[in-house]
Amino acid sequence: MAEVRKFTKRLSKPGTAAELRQSVSEAVRSSVVLEKTKVVEPLDYENVIAQRKTQIYSDPLRDLLMFPMEDISISVISRQRRTVQSTVPEDGEKRAQSLFVKECIKTYNNGPAAVSLMVFPLFQDSSSLCSQKGGVIKQGWLHKANVNSTITVTMKVFKRRYFYLTQLPDGSYILNSYKDEKNSKESKGCIYLDACIDVVQCPKMRRHAFELKMLDKYSHYLAAETEQEMEEWLITLKKIIQINTDSLVQEKKETVEISQGQNFFNNSLDFSGIEPDIKPFEEKCNKRFLVNCHDLMFNILGQVGDNAKGPPTNVEPFFINLALFDVKNNCKISADFHVDLNPPSVREMLWGPSSQPATDGTPRGSSPESFIHGIKNLTEGIFFQGIFSVTNPHPEIFLVARIEKVLQGNITHCAEPYIKNSDPAKTAQKVHRTAKQVCSRLGQYRMPFAWAARPIFKDIQGSLDVDGRFSPLYKQDSSKLSNEDILKLLSEYKKNVLTIVASLPVFFSAIDCITSSYVPLKPFEKNCQNITVEVEEFVPEMTKYCYPFTIYKNHLYVYPLQLKYDSQKTFAKARNIAVCVEFRDSDESDASALKCIYGKPAGSVFTTNAYAVVSHHNQNPEFYDEIKIELPIHLHQKHHLLFTFYHVSCEINTKGTTKKQDTVETPVGFAWVPLLKDGRIITLEQQLPVSANLPPGYIYSKGRLFSPIIPYWVDGAKPLLKIKSHLESTIYTQCLHAMEIQVMIQFLPVILMQLFQVLTNMTHEDDVPFNCTMVLLHIVSKCHEEGLDNYLRSFIKYSFRPEKPSAPQAQLIHETLATTMIAILKQSADFLAINKLLKYSWFFFEIIAKSMATYLLEENKIKLPRGQRFSEAYHHVLHSLLLAIIPHVTIRYAEIPDESRNVNYSLASFLKRCLTLMDRGFVFNLINDYISGFSPKDPKVLAEYKFEFLQTICNHEHYIPLNLPMAFAKPKLQRVQDSNLEYSLSDEYCKHHFLVGLLLRETSIALQDNYEIRYTAISVIKNLLIKHAFDTRYQHKVRMFVSSPVSHYLIFVLQTRQSSTRSSVSQYNRLDQYEIRSLLMCYLYIVKMISEGSTTTEANIFHQALLEGNTATEVSLTVLDTISFFTQCFKSQLLNNDGHNPLMKKVFDIHLAFLKNGQSEVSLKHVRNKSLRLRVALLLGKKDQGNRISKPQLMKPLNLAFVNINTEQQNTERGPDHEFLKSARAFNFILLFLFFFFFPQ
User: What residue stretches are annotated with the C2 DOCK-type domain (predicted)?
Assistant: First the structure.
């Protein structure tokens, strides 16, 4: 049973409460003055816990005294891949030779690892931490409809799948489908039931069918095999939806309760102790849309080949290239998406002599492939659907379709039948006959033909313009083929005149999908017929669009731009020039091209070469083709691009003569460019000379003085060929400077891990750790400047995994990093580096904390006593680091306000984590040393720093065990000596309950200061109470919680402020409304918790009644004293208009409200005696002074008369004490007589 407070015991003696409170106030003020300059050393926490181990374990509320046994843990989280399999090629890590590439591949293969400090945030149900959920709820065969939204409901195709309804460990439900009962294979699809809002039957769609309606107005359609199975599924799914709904309602209810708690505590909950939600690195999901190409129909149609009975088709093959162009930023923002909509009968026209399929069925220049990433149908290379993505959507983004056909001649001549067509049937026969001859001879060469465009977005929010249509097909101008020309035409594309009559419907609607590297995405049906491919987006090279890479990708896009051959004299015929691009790894005479170029539709997936479009009779041709290359993992100096130029003969024997025709291809030059320069891939626009021959060792022959074979340069080795390339790689960089911010962000995990490895493995070079830390500081500061510090937090939590140093004498990361931080802070020359380290110190402290936690777990040091976990040398390093930080906070705070505030908070957060990891007594000493660096005479800024530091420390998830809420026995003599100081912060109290004692001591001093500092101190106390009020771990342990040092403090503060306010108004600033309300709210909350926490034994009932009576007495006296004090301070306002004013009425209203509630007998006796003394004082004052007493002077006695009158009425109902009522009546009569005697009017 808690001891009844001393002054409440003595309330039975009337008139002694005020005197006792006065004595307490004086004792408190004197004790505060003593404590200002006194430093109290904390106790040895670990020693106390060891000595009282038996007592703690036998305590029924030992959870309040102990840390959890497993307070930290490490968990490797499986990487959430979008793809069915890893994007890294098989044996990729073995094939890599570059250290940087190896580390990249290792990063993309390994899952993120998180070291979890078992933090108990607000509003979390601790029971959920140990609850185990999961398991199969229901399973069986169902028919699932495809999810193509372009197909009407009644035409959906159903596939039979075996479904597992499973509850995940987090309590959510998922519906997985498999090909058969064996769920060991990859899932064919999944439905997350969290987003399901209803399930209804669909009898019109299919027998026993039902619909799962989702939140995003999307639906999944399933069908059972029998009516009984359908009913069972419906019942089960409805139960789950109801569970999800109830859970949502409960969450809303808890939110309302939290909101009510916020209102109770003045709507100022503080969540500074809650860590931000940090997610692992993931691919950015930009605005995506699907393009589905159905057909391309011109106005010249006919029957082709064996398709005599089928619908008419185009009479010659056409090919479509789709890409996104940004007119606003004047650039192309996507790769090309190649589409072949030719029917099989038209596609057969291409199998001429020059492109006749080999015996294996693949075109020339390619070889057969069985499966690509396990996908059989991918070998056909025909895609009709592509997913485009846009990072920065706006209305000036266009989807451009470039139409090509087989090389035939001049564009104007080839387009004339489609523009001027008087006899469609006759024209179709003529065009088809010519096309058949051309395709058989020149089937692999393409020529530009037409183009069309359409806008994509309606607004900058990314709303798709699904109702838009492609423009008419415009005839391609042979002099305007480049991307720059297309961008100019797009700005005024409606002004083009020559159009070709055609229809190109494109539908925006996704399904079995593969990445731009042809890796299948989840879910994927291996035998699916229609495959959707993701089209590469060329993200703007701006920092805000950068993100750390998480998947393997290694593409190079090559663009031949222009060839200037009008002045060359080497070749007689060089007009219809075709460019063949190859990628080689050797320049020897017998070297061959690598098969790594992505093929076009109807061909092989990968080929050895690619041709650009041919401009007829043009000696300075322009090109717009895009050649996509899958780069090998390891690149060396011999890897290069080889460009071979051919003159293509377009002559066709249309008259059936026996005249010998020219060969199709005639080589007219070679050009090459090495891929690497200084170890990096060159992606700038380049001008290359052209050679007439290709000698062995040609790559670097231009720079050799003594070369056995010198290339024969065309036109004096002038730069005749213009090319450019674009790199989309996650293992190589195209940036010339590796420290540019874009590169740092993209390869952030790899770069940081490499730096940390260097930091710990270099032991002999003194400058290496220092310089390495400076590089880390540069990267961290750049990330903050760009607003991308969230990536740093993700790295620390999921990607940073400290490795054990390879050198035997090397230090661990936390040891080395702390040492180098001290070195940076102590140097006096580089203040810029010091300020950056202070400002971004959180990163280094978090790295140190995770390294410490990982070290304890991996070295199995976690089971050792805390004093033995870390060496004395490391303790000394941390102490030195703290001493190095203190002057930058307490002295330079005005010079560097942001930096000092940041390091103050970061240091507090770090020490809070250290309380979980190491010797808590040592950490208490660090905290004490830091607080000792502050002074009571500090300015307001430093006072705020001090309380921010204390609040962060006190937000520790095990704050109550850290304060040791247990009794510390004292000798009897000491208990007698301390009896008069029960409300003082003694040295013993602050030593045994260190954190709360430190907070109370600093708050006591702050209450004597100005408003801002008082406000900060009171807010810390209130937020601390709020934090524990909502902590569900203590919801059944309220009594123990209230008896903790925190609740003791509140009563102490209230008594201190109350007594000091009465006794010396001039010494203390007046509390404003917020301060009074905050303190009273905290006080009332503690009273409420005391009431709820009591047990029902007879002794406790008696004690509870006594407490309630004493509390009621205290409240009544406080109210009366407050009103008395108010009338003294506002006497002139109350006397205004002879007391007839709103303020006087308000005072009487408060009196009447006070009288409406029954008061304790002790309180009423105290009121009666005080009133009688006032009556005598009034009479003596009139007799001695002869002065007329004003009406306001009798307001208080009159009020006390009302008190006694009301008391008489209440006590009459309860069985009155007649002697008491008699004296009360007499007193009231005398008081009223005096009133009318002095004021007869």
Answer: 553-728
Q: Classify residue 622 by its DSSP letter.
A: B
At 385, give phi and psi (nearest 5°). Answer: -125, 135
Which of helix, strand or coil describes residue 605? coil
What six digits make up the tokens of 780?
A: 């961290």
What span, in angstroms and rounded, lies between the C-alpha atoms of 584 and 178? 43
State the burial class of residue 716 (Cβ atoms within 10 Å of its Cβ: 0-12, 13-18, 19+): exposed
Sign of CA dihedral 989, 995, 996, 1001: positive
Return all residues near 1194 (Cβ < 8 A) that are at least 6 apart: 1178, 1234, 1235, 1238
- For residue 211, give the H/E element and its range: strand 209-214
Asked if residues 619 and 575 have their Cβ atoms less than 8 Å apart, the reply is: yes
Give me the DSSP letters along 302-336. E--TT-SSS--EESS-EEEEEEEEETTTTEE-B--
Taking residue 424's Cβ as centre, other Cβ atoms within 10 Å add up to: 14
State the pTM of this model: 0.72
Helix (H) or strand (E) holding 117: strand 113-117
Give CA–CA dist 415/471, Å, rounded: 17
> pLDDT-derived band of residue 1063, with 50, 70 and 90 as boundaries?
very low
% of the chain with per-residue pLDDT over 70: 71
C-alpha closest to that of 81 among 109, 43, 105? 109
Q: Is 91 left (phi over 0), alpha (psi -120 to 50) or beta?
A: left
The strands making up 209-214's β-sheet, listed across from edge to edge, are: 189-192, 173-178, 158-167, 135-145, 219-223, 209-214, 196-201
pLDDT in tens, 1169-1223: 655 554 444 444 444 444 444 445 555 455 554 444 444 444 444 444 444 444 4
Residues 6+ apart with CB under 8 A from 947: 1002, 1006, 1016, 1017, 1019, 1020
Phi then psi for residue 136, to 5 deg, are: -80, 125
∠ CA 641-642-644 to the nearest 5 degrees?
A: 150
Q: Please tell me whether residue 966 adopts helix, strand or coil conformation.
A: coil
Helix, coil or strand: residue 1226 = helix
Contact (Cβ atoms closer than 8 angstroms) between residue 16 and residue 10 = yes
**Residue keyed to tokens 């983004």:** 397
The first and second tokens of residue 479, run together, are 């002099």
d(C-alpha 1004, C-alpha 28), whole Å: 9
Report the distance separating Cα 1001 and Cα 985, nearest Å. Answer: 7
How far is residue 16's CA from residue 1169's CA, in Å, rounded to a whole number?
12
Measuring CA to CA, which residue among 677, 647, 645, 675 is closest to residue 663? 647
Beta strand pairing call for 532-534 and 385-390: parallel
DSSP code, position 701? G
Task: Let me know: does 1024 contact 1047? Beta carbons within 8 Å.
Answer: no
Alpha carbon distances (Å) from 47 to 44, 375, 379: 5, 65, 72
The pLDDT of residue 749 is above 70: yes
In degrees and rounded to multiples of 5, residue 1093 shows phi and psi of -90, 0
Confidence (pLDDT) at 563: 93
CB-based contact 719:689 (threshold 8 Å): yes
pLDDT in tens, 401-427: 999 999 988 888 888 888 887 788 888
Strands, sheet with 532-534, edge to edge from the N-terminal-most edge strand: 506-508, 287-293, 385-390, 532-534, 513-514
Q: How many CB atoms lie within 10 A of CB 590?
A: 6
| Confidence bin at 841 (pLDDT 50/70/90) | very high
The type of residue at 503 is S
| Backbone dihedral angles phi then psi of residue 647, each to the nearest 5 degrees | -90, 120
Residues 887-936: tens digit of each pLDDT: 999 999 999 999 999 999 999 999 999 999 999 999 999 999 999 999 88
- Say which residue the tokens 């009571």 belong to: 936
Residue 121, preceding peptide bond in cis (omega within 30° of 0): no
Cα separation of 421 and 431, whole Å? 11
Look at residue 331 in the predicted model and tell me its pLDDT. Answer: 92
